[in-house]
Specification:
Elements lengths: L1 H13 L14 E6 L3 E3 L3 E9 L4 E4 L11 E10 L5 E10 L4 E5 L3 E6 L6 E4 L3 E6 L21 H20 L1 H7 L10 H14 L8 H20 L8 H7 L8 H19 L6 H18 L10
């Protein structure tokens, strides 16, 4: 009987895992957060995936997650802390989306292991909900009004401005001859904006990008041609603005007709969808965009030039 009990106890103890004092591997607390949960279509979203309570662990996050659903990845960068930023605690992702409605940012895979170890264990970050709204709301059919300028009515400021105006008038009166000589401008022959745009469109056509399947590069170049033409023709810094900023800047402009504004809104939005979203385009659509760009230049070039052949 005693021998049988001894055998049972020996089997029980030998069946228990021997850890030699090593602590069990506790997974990190993975957190996912965005800088805003309500955006407009085309806005950028900053998603931060961070591993907390990771003492004694190494973590690894993908630079480009395989599955982002309806979202497009613009850029990503590691999040670090500690002296000289030696310790990586997570990753920051800049995303964009061109579909309205409620959307869920999928989980990001996170790998972790004991520091110095070799076996990675995979976990996932929490999913995050985002509400994507249209640029236009309700029954709106046009671009939002620009906020009015703030008027400063400081008496001191007004007094200083008056002094400066008087001083400028006096200077102009006494030194008008010198000013005429120093500000005499020679006329220099410069190609008109519409000629430059036509030449760039022709050069783009000769590149045969649609036939080569380079859809994104084609729309980037076509959009840049139109933006540079607008800058040269109307002095708007279109190449330096986002589409939303540019459309807002021309809301009350009398330089560009309403029909041309509607064209720009459709043309630039379509170009952005191809450049930044997962949207493809057919050869007929690409040719139509090219023709629309030509027609926009035809309609907006100086009146005296509209009867000339290209």
């Amino acid at each position: 009987m005693r021998k049988a009990l001894f055998i049972l106890f020996a089997v029980f103890f030998l069946s228990q895992p021997v850890t030699f004092g090593e602590k069990a591997l506790i997974p990190p607390d993975i957190e996912a957060k965005v800088d805003k949960d309500k955006i407009r279509i085309g806005d950028r979203i900053k998603l931060e995936v961070v591993a907390k309570d990771k003492k004694g662990l190494d973590v690894s996050l993908p630079e480009k997650p395989d599955d982002l659903g309806a979202f497009s990845l613009i850029s990503s960068a590691p999040i670090k802390k500690g002296f000289f930023g030696k310790e990586t605690i997570g990753r920051e992702y800049i995303l964009s989306i061109y579909t309205t409605g409620s959307h869920e940012i999928p989980s990001v895979p996170v790998g972790y292991k004991r520091t110095g170890g070799t076996d990675w264990i995979m976990a996932e970050s929490p999913k995050v909900m985002i509400e994507v709204q249209s640029v236009l709301k309700g029954d709106e059919t046009d671009i939002k009004d620009i906020k009015g300028l703030i008027l400063y009515r400081s008496k001191t400021l007004l007094f200083l401005v008056l002094i400066m105006i008087v001083a400028l008038i006096l200077l102009l009166f006494f030194f008008r001859k010198r000013l005429k000589e120093s500000f005499r401008i020679r006329k220099v022959a410069v190609k008109p904006a519409y000629i430059i745009a036509y030449e760039e469109l022709e050069a783009l056509r000769e590149m045969h990008l649609p036939e080569a399947g380079k859809i994104k590069e084609y729309y980037i170049r076509l959009s840049d041609i139109v933006r540079r033409y607008i800058e040269n023709r109307f002095s708007y810094k279109a190449p330096e603005m986002t589409t939303e900023e540019f459309l807002s800047s021309i809301k009350n402009s009398t330089k560009i007709q309403k029909e041309s504004k509607e064209f720009l809104k459709e043309f630039l939005s379509r170009s952005d969808m191809v450049k930044f979203a997962k949207y493809s385009s057919t050869l007929p659509e690409m040719e139509k965009s090219f023709v629309l760009a030509e027609e926009f230049i035809d309609r907006t070039k100086p009146v005296e030039q509209k009867g000339e052949n290209r």
